Amino acid sequence: MKILLVNPPCRIPTHIPLGLGYIASVLRADGHHVTLMDLNAENRPFPEIEKELERIDCGLIGIGGLTTTYKFVKEFSSLVKKIKPKVKIMAGNMVSSAHPKLLLDNSEIDICVFDEGEETVRELANKIAKSRDTDNVKGIFFKKNQEVLFSAPRERIKDLDKLPFPAWDLFAIDIYANNVMNNSYGKKSINVSTVRGCPFKCVYCSRPFGSRVYMRSSESIVSEIKALKARYNIQYIAFSDDLFILKRQRVMDLCDILIKERVNIEWAASGRVNLVDRALLRKMRKAGCRALGYGFESGSQKILDIMKKGADIAQAERAIELTRKAKISVEGAFMFGMIGETEETINETVEFIKRTDLDINRLFYTTPYPGTPLYDMAKKKNRIPEDEDKYVSSLGEMYSTFLVNLTDMEGEKLKRLKEDAEKKIRKNFSVRVKLGNLKNEAIRIWTNMKKNLKKDGIFKTISWIAGKTKMRLSGE
After folding, report:
1. End-to-end CA distance of the chain
2. Quick check: 14 and 189 in contact, CB under 8 A?
3. pLDDT < 50 stretches in the chain
4. Parallel, antiparallel, or unpaired for β 111-113 and 140-144?
5. Structural domains in the chain?
6. Closest by alpha carbon to 377, among 118, 204, 147, 208?
7. Rounded to two decimals, what is the model's pTM?
8. In this structure, are residues 92 and 100 in contact, taking their beta carbons and an 8 Å threshold?
9. For position 146, what pLDDT does the model report?
């Protein structure tokens, strides 16, 4: 059967949507013909998407993305049904798993795949290809007689090594690999997944794979890295797991293989402040680790406890110190406006960032996502609008819009405090941070300039540089 997979527009295309990549590989292994419409990489307008849909012949369409793509998924499914009314549409990833009933009630989506998708989509595709009923396929929500039903839970995939590598060839690798990631310093970079699940209980996290953890073997991971290097000359890997370093010995084993086999790859991963130590970080550095991202979230112990973070301020400070001593760059993120946030806790966060000399430019508004404990907490406090469909549709604007006030402060005051806090943080940037930012900016400009030269030639590139310079000088 011919199957169309769709990657909705979401963010700057630095990370391949690995979920769709795995789904495509599994479907191909069963003999299906898979095509991909990568709208995040190509950013097409709707009239162009409509023409493409009219041209493509398929018996099943799958679309997957984060919750922030909810509005687009609704609009896209409506367009599909107008052009191909008999073709079934399945949705996956968090846009499906976090709120399946909401999506099915408010869109033209036929089936929501819940949690892991490889085995579920394989069974769905094989049954649809043979015109068989799909109601008893485990792991799906579906519509029947105007009612949303759930079939049954599906067991997690325990041996992740059995999964084929993602179908990289379906994606515009050059677009993804050449978009500069933090600390990749212009090297060709791509993301790799090695772990599914997280045992921690942070209230803001949806934990897409649940609390039970399954991991790929070090041999499988190294094999994938070697394949990426051989096929696409990849020089930098971003391990895009929720928690790469959960099992210390596994990370040590992976590092040993990378060193022993001289894989010669630089990489970044996610860390946790209460799980790192000096020996581990030194081994990671030797094996190619150049950056670790920590979800600090707050510099206030009171807020960390409300978040159920399971870590403390002293551990965070120690992790920063040890990581830098190992010559690994420290990256981090902070939330602003959590339940219980006050002027005092905001000041604690600002002081934490200042004394640890973190390169933080902005604080992100705490946003409750469906499927998280924080969402339920916000609903109990009557902070989520009654029109949940409208609220979830607005989540794509969360980076630029203040959506929910979870604090006891007035909204305007909270916005002002956020702006003031960010100004204090930037004003405190040390020479190290300023030089690092200048270096990253120079690399980004140089990388974009090379792409423009290749695409548009020297005259248009000179015009592009002049435009950028004018913007900088005018402060735009």
Report:
1. 51
2. yes
3. 468, 470-476
4. antiparallel
5. 2-150 (3.40.50.2300), 180-366+406-429 (3.20.20.70), 438-474 (no CATH)
6. 204
7. 0.88
8. no
9. 87
